[in-house]
Amino acid sequence: MLVGVAVLVAGIQLLLGDFHLPSWLILTALLYLVAIGVGSSIVESRRKAVDRVVRGLVTAAFLLAVAPLISTLWTVVSKGLAIVNWDFITKTGGSAFDPDTLAVVATPGALQAIVGTLIITGIAALISVPIGVLAAVYLVEYALPTNPLRRTITFLVDVMTGIPSIVAGLFAFSFFALIVGPKAFSGFSASIALCVLMIPIVIRSTEEMLRLVPADLREASLALGVPRSATIIKVVLRTAASGIITGVVLAVARVVGETAPIFIAASFTDNFNSNPFDGPMQTLPVMAYTAYSFPGQDIDASQAQAWGAARVDPRKVSVSKRIEVEDLNVYYSDFLAVEGVSIDIQPRTVTAFIGPSGCGKSTFLRTLNRMHEVIPGGHVKGRVLVDGDDLYGPGVDPVLVRRHVGMVFQRPNPFPTMSIRENVLAGARLNNKRISRSDADALVEKSLQGANLWNEVKDRLDKPGGGLSGGQQQRLCIARAIAVSPDVLLMDEPCSALDPISTFAIEELISELKNEYTIVIVTHNMQQASRVSDKTAFFNIAGTGKPGKLIEYNDTATIFTAPTVQATEDYVSGRFG
Ligand SMILES: Nc1ncnc2c1ncn2[C@@H]1O[C@H](COP(=O)(O)OP(=O)(O)OP(=O)(O)O)[C@@H](O)[C@H]1O
């Protein structure tokens, strides 16, 4: 039908003796949409007709959007190709006075502009990319939302994003004019102008990419006892690398075609100048502009020229297996989330924390490896002793504490950029520990066997960790946690995101792991608590906004069959929570 309509419109236009390509295309599209709409509503149904017309409109809108792009590409390539040859890119060109013919002659050659573009854009990228990426890391990883400096930087970035490029050129020129005097034209000045345009783009794009990195990955790394700086460099930035590089490429693409700021800051010249600190410099956009605006006498040659241009010392802290908590209060800023917990967790046992949602089980668990402090405002009052050493004592490094008290989270969080093998070795590698190939192989096998995963993955250790099933991923996370040889293993609802078969595999694993580790597990699943734990702690909360408290702590069998507190009995028998 489309062809029929097109021929009809062309015929009418020819009959009227005025064939015009754009009007032929527009009329054909309009008539086709009307015809398909009416025809379909008669032959098919009204719904189909609307569907066909909307599909036609979307296709037309797409073609309309790409038409200018294709047209521009075609024009530049077809006109530029004629002049772009080896001489054009290896020789200096421009307009010169020919004494023989007494005429201004344009000689093709863009070497001065190509070199100028590379130098000016290269310097701008060298300055802007580190500043932009570091500013974004500060905004996302370090500054609290209420931090005045963060607000100021965000505001300035917003303002800078909207600056017209010519203003950036004027700023750079004025700035250098104040320092070196008038005629302060230089390639470096143009680079500074481009930095003003590039930095906000790099900050914005890097910020977005860093925010996309799941918080789980940061926690997974911190829980391995990796310092925050190494976590940012080796986990967060590595995960976001491809997105950040795309942002940088876009920023370079945005400035490489700038004409106005370079024209103002570096002026223009046809002379070859490779010194960015001395005198005017030319870039390809400026060359295209000047060749077009100020042609030599040979306008055709001049225009052809224009088209042609287009990571910690292992200070051993004695953190070992028995955990004694004395009157611990846990806060989120001023909010007291958990109050007055005193508990004695025995080595080589599995202890389950149970209680209704919001009673502070997870919050309390995270104080046992100082992960609670990772949350802004998170702090504690009281003591947590591991084999007699206070985790919160003066001079104790939380990073070292986390190497001895490993953690497995609710959702499996293998590092997506790492293979299965690299995930198991993450604790060692992220902490820059030197480890021989054979030791690494032995550690990978031992940890995966410890996590009951070896047989399932031994033939694909170099495949990404993210490619495993949810249950396998969680066992990989357990392998990763035990690879750093912790003394205690904390598990925050490790099976809540898993199916019953994977849950059974993890429960079996927990029963085996308790021969080597002190295990503390938060669970909502009463059967699971009674199946895997030796001791159970019941937490409760008096009401919303009130702190959670440890109500009863005893042998699991006693908690489930003969608890001493009524609330415990009500909870384990399913009367509330
Ligand atoms: N990041 C946070 N900032 C402020 N308050 C928080 C934060 N995380 C948790 N809380 C509060 O601390 C209290 C205890 O929460 P927590 O998540 O530890 O409870 P929970 O018993 O583990 O609950 P659930 O079983 O639902 O996971 C709740 O009142 C909760 O709102």
Automatic annotation (TrEMBL):
GO-annotated molecular function: ATP binding; ATP hydrolysis activity; phosphate transmembrane transporter activity
Biological processes, Gene Ontology terms: phosphate ion transmembrane transport
InterPro entries registered for this protein in UniProt: AAA+_ATPase, ABC_transporter-like_ATP-bd, ABC_transporter-like_CS, MetI-like, MetI-like_sf, P-loop_NTPase, Phosphate_PstA, PstB-like
Source domain of life: Eukaryota
Subcellular location: Cell membrane
Domain ABC transporter stretches: 323-566
Transmembrane segments: 24-43, 55-77, 113-140, 152-179, 185-203
Cellular component terms (Gene Ontology): plasma membrane
Entry-linked SMART domains: AAA
Domain ABC transmembrane type-1: 114-300
Membrane topology: Multi-pass membrane protein
Keywords: ATP-binding, Cell membrane, Membrane, Nucleotide-binding, Transmembrane, Transmembrane helix, Transport
Family according to the record: Belongs to the binding-protein-dependent transport system permease family. CysTW subfamily.
Protein's name according to its UniProt entry: Phosphate import ATP-binding protein PstB
